[in-house]
Write a structure and sequence with these properties.
This protein is an alpha+beta fold and 76 residues long. It has 3 helices and 2 strands, in the order H-E-E-H-H.
């Protein structure tokens, strides 16, 4: 199970931290999304990545949530 004191970045740890719940729609998450995309200078870190479903991750693409017209249900 996810240990909040263990902050090592990995897809598995992000999904466990977010209870496999998409940060955008609330459905089951099967991937992760960079809030500030790497193509815009974002980094792969525990604070910049959330769990996401494939549909929302594809819709957001290489944009910020604001640019894509999407809201985060929770912050990492």
């Amino acid at each position: 199970k996810y240990d909040p004191e263990y902050r090592r970045y990995s897809k598995k740890n992000i999904l466990e931290r977010d209870n496999y719940t998409c940060a955008y729609c609330g459905k089951h998450a099967d991937t992760v999304d960079h809030i500030l995309p790497r193509c815009l200078g974002g980094v792969s870190s525990f604070e910049n990545v959330v769990a996401a479903c494939f549909k929302c991750n594809s819709k957001k693409g290489g944009r910020t949530p604001e640019q894509a017209g999407m809201k985060l249900r929770f912050r990492p």
